[in-house]
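To illustrate the input format used throughout this study, we show a single complete record. The first block contains the structure-token representation of the backbone; no residue identities are included at this stage. The design step must infer an amino acid for every position from geometry alone.
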């Protein structure tokens, strides 16, 4: 099958800077793809790289798109190299949408239908780092979130532990809380965090659940994370360590049987991800890369299909952007 291929780069500014151990992030940049097959069916896709997380850079993705002629084939789409995982996801998800014929034709006029959460999935809301979390959670709670993720490893550990103490006594009973370090802790700090969480569970005085600590150590300290996961009751999840399909397979081969946080937008080929998850039945949490509604549609379909253990997915990020339902129409027609 042959397809007419077009693309447009985009920029979306965060309402407030997103702060993680990797630094501050002010503008989300990516690329919107459109494939039109010989019968006129349209498939939309999105390339939303995060180079510091393990994907290609935006420049590499733009170069790849620019090198393609206006007409591409199935073979082009399924032979994108592994060094371009966000491109693999963007092109293959556009191909899947066009093949199904769903949403593609009317997506250009309004993407409001894509902003409605999938009712079969539970969502986790992302709290800002630092003390701001103490003021943000209530708004998300009123919107229906019962699982929250809080960034740690950003400020001094003594300060974060004090905020954590306030947060766990402020959040309602039976809330689930995830702590995400983005690889920003030392081994000693990671042990202190996990031990603190274990002690909370042991004394039973706090009725919320610390669901897991996410990527406490840098990617290169995989063995130490494996040790942490085997030494404490509090679960450890790996995220940066499994940014791409190659890393996912390598960590599984090295013995990881804990939680895998998968970011579909940068992990690579959706079809190969399905094969891996079905083959190994891994414990997954699907998570956003601050993509637009286009990539989110494809990512949520994967999450609905592949999630196990009823874990909330990490797509509660709408409050980080202004909502603009006609942005895609404007992007496509203004350029």
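Output of the design step:
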């Amino acid at each position: 099958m042959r397809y007419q291929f077009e693309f447009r780069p985009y920029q979306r500014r965060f309402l407030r800077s997103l702060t993680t151990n990797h630094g501050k992030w002010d503008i989300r940049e990516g690329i919107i793809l459109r494939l039109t097959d010989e019968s006129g069916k349209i498939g939309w896709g999105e390339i939303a790289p995060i180079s510091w997380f393990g994907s290609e850079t935006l420049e590499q993705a733009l170069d790849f798109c620019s090198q393609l002629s206006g007409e591409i084939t199935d073979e082009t789409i399924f032979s994108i190299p592994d060094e371009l995982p966000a491109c693999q996801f963007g092109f293959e998800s556009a191909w899947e949408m066009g093949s199904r014929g769903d949403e593609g034709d009317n997506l250009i006029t309004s993407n409001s239908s894509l902003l409605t959460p999938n009712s079969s999935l539970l969502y986790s809301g992302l709290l800002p780092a630092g003390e701001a979390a103490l003021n943000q959670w209530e708004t998300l709670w009123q919107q229906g979130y019962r699982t929250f993720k809080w960034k740690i490893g950003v400020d001094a550990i003594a300060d974060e532990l004090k905020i954590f103490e306030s947060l766990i006594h402020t959040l309602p009973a039976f809330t689930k809380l995830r702590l995400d370090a983005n690889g920003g802790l030392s081994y000693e700090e990671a042990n202190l965090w996990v031990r603190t969480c274990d002690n909370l569970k042991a004394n039973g005085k706090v009725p919320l659940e610390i669901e897991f600590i996410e990527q406490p150590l840098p990617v290169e300290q995989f063995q130490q994370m494996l040790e942490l996961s085997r030494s404490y009751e509090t679960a450890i999840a790996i995220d940066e360590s499994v940014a791409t399909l190659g890393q996912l397979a390598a960590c599984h081969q090295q013995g990881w049987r804990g939680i895998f946080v998968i970011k579909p937008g940068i992990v690579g080929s959706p079809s190969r991800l399905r094969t891996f998850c079905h083959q190994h039945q891994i414990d997954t949490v699907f998570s956003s890369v601050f993509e637009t509604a286009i990539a989110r549609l494809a990512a949520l379909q994967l999450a609905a299909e592949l999630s196990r253990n009823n874990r909330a997915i990490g797509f509660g990020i709408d409050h980080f952007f202004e909502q603009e339902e006609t942005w895609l129409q404007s992007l496509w027609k203004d350029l």
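Structural context for interpreting the output: Residues 34 and 287 are 24 Å apart (CA to CA). DSSP finds twelve helices and twelve strands in the chain.
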